[in-house]
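[09:14] KT: can someone run the structure on this one? pasting the chain below
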Amino acid sequence: MGVLRQLFDTLLAPAAPHSRYCARVDDEEPNDRFTRRAARDAEDTAARALAERLAGARQEWFVQVPLDDQLTLGERLTRARAMKPSGARRREIRFVAKLLQGVDQRPIIAALDRAESGASHDTEALQAAEAWRERLIDEGDRALDAFCSEHAGLDRQRLRQLARQAHKQREQGASPKASRALFKLIRAALAEA
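[09:31] RB: done, structure tokens below
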């Protein structure tokens, strides 16, 4: 029992002044070193998450991220992006995270958020165009009236013609050429609105 008690006392002893985790000062409370270490661990985790997010970002988003003044960071990120998932890639991302700790991360996070929100907006627009195309092909003139009332100034005759051709091509199992043309026309109309 004595050895266990000595080990326990050693673990709870205050850190030495040369400790890498805490430069102990006499007026500090003993729990301050744990608070600082927890804060540093949280910063490390946030930097690693940002490095993972940068390494996994699409190329067009990656170009928008402001890394001009940090050549080493940009080179290391490019290298990590090119690697397949492995231990080397994980080490590279950890190194990038270490470099990110010395940089103001707010503009980088803001650029990534803008890029990701723009991508989700594009996806929503494509889904809306797809829904209108299906509705125009399936419902016919009722859907055409609803679409034209929302988007004035469209070539109604062309929309009706493409919707009918797409419906006929779908029934015959032919190539969906008219459906593609209808989708392009709808997407252009939604982009103008």
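[09:33] KT: thanks! DSSP finds nine helices and no strands in the chain.
[09:34] RB: yep, looked fine to me
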